[in-house]
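Appendix B, example 12.
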Amino acid sequence: MSDILMATSSNPTSGPVKPNIFLGVTSALNIDKPTKKDLVATKNMIAAMQPHKVFDTPEGCHLRRKVLLELEKMAKEWIKEMTLSQGRSEEYAKEVGGKIFTFGSYRLGVHTQGADIDALLVAPRHISREEVFTKFADRLKSHEQIKHVKVIEDAYVPVIKMVFSGIEMDLTYARLALKAIPNNLDLQNTELLRNLDPRCVRSMNGCRVTDAILSLVPDVDSKEAFKTALRMIKLWAKNRGIYSNAMGYLGGVSWAILVARTCQLYPNACASTVVHKFFRVFTQWEWPKPIMLKIFEENILKMQVWDARLNEQDAMHKMPIITPAYPEQNTTFNVRKSTLSVMQEEFERAQKICMLISLNKTEWDVLFEPVNFFSKYKHYIIVQVEADTEQDLLEWQGLLESLIRFLIEKLEAIRKYIDVACVYPSPIHQDPPPGTSPDPLKPFFKSSYFVGLQFHKVDDLDLPLTEPIRSFLERVHEKARKNKFTLTVKMEAVYYKKNQLKERFPNLVIKRKDTYTRLLKLLPNLFPSLRPRKSPSPPAGSSNPTSPHHNNESPPGSGSGIAVNSPRYNGTGSPGSDTSMQAMSQLNDSQSNSQTHMEVNGESSQRETKRKREPLPPLQSKRPRSQSPPPEDLLLTPELATPYEQDKLNPPFSLTAESRKDLIKFRKGTATTTS
């Protein structure tokens, strides 16, 4: 684990000195230990996750370890045979070695029941990639416990897919420039990447990134807070339909980096607190500012790394989340404008639910209720695939998932008509049409991908959808011919309205339980600052037809609600009165407000300023409900803001600590006025 830099505060008036723990690119925001309430909330959160099978069983963990040991044994034996077949000595063949590394969710310790295993085979320099993807793949096919072996050598990261004793596995390969592979090989050594094939670098990147994430997470309770919080976030993202890198959302690595960054900001927090802070931080985050767990390493090998300052393509990324291992890359290059807006909505929804959970107004289950995707939009494009065999259907599904982002890109380009175009990350498998009996001689294999569309409100809408759909289908067929897929598969893209879905897809769950909508009604009562503000009505006889705010149009920033740090707060005086000016003059140490000129019925307010100023009256003992200040939990203060926002807080949330104390005195009626 990286070193922890400890620094102490030099402020003699700050009370007990607390260390600032630096993990990542900034210091921690809070290092408090969890309270009993926090620990109880974590237990409740774990209990809510249990029914969703996010924790593997002891038998499942044992089987996974057994499968990995067996796979490594097979790899070492095969490498030894290949070494002897090349005329090398028996002694050298015994020492040549070979090793299996894991990465992804299994390496992070957050795999679920039935999840696959991502693995990397590392071999010495005399074992070529072609031999692994042909001869070793044949060895895997001959094993009685290994089924469905599929070699994808022309992928961006070449992989061998298989099912080993019922467990799905993705095996990648890296050929190192070493004579032998030692058992204590450390893949974090950057020198291993020197003069390596780019495909091998990409294959090793999975292991290097996973190990780097673990090393950069605070080592509290064996990183259990990080692991438990990541399980919750992944469950939430999957149920809310925003877990898919190929579809333009975030994949497993991206979510892990975001949770790890939250743990760096709150290094001593328990899992439930990490989840709360996760949504707070990334609801406020100003994208496209990048998320990084560490400062970039020196580019000693001159590889291409992510840098928005130098690379025009990198500067166009909407939601950069950077890997913490060299060469640093963006894990979210597929994120589009539409998918970013959907994720931001989900962040805001989750934050509000967490606020209610903290007040015991709802349960954790509400957080990961399934999304109502099929009732959220009024218009849909449905891409349907029908094949004769299950294998053909799986191949075309993988092809569609890798290319459907280009359809979203084409649809987003129609800015005149389309605001949002988002795809549901999971295909919907269809049954035979109603009224037809399944043919045992011709099985029915059909699935559909749904793209939700949000249009502008325009009359006589004539959507130019033909060209984007046609170009997308041509691209898919061209790629299928290149990959020598079965061309008898039927594929089409059809436009549907929401009210047509139930008739066309009778088994589709159009409307799900939505507890969040009902809970939204509680928020204004619990948090008055969330109530919509109303424009103040002008005093009788004060209407000015020439005023830009005539006809009850309120000036920018005005409102009847009172915020704890709002410059509109004026006690019992009317908006713009002398008492209001004096109060804000005290808070801001400025006399500019008291010199403000206001035109009322064509007369200048200078006459009011000549009157003798009276002492500021105390506030009423019983404040109207609409004027109660928002709870401290909702204030965006420098202590709660994200590191990049500490110097750029929004104007309504810009009070300093000193001015906030003055405002509290002002509320209590203890503030003094100066003439």
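The longest helix spans residues 58-85. Residues 1-19, 540-614, 616-660, 662-675 have pLDDT under 50 and may be disordered.
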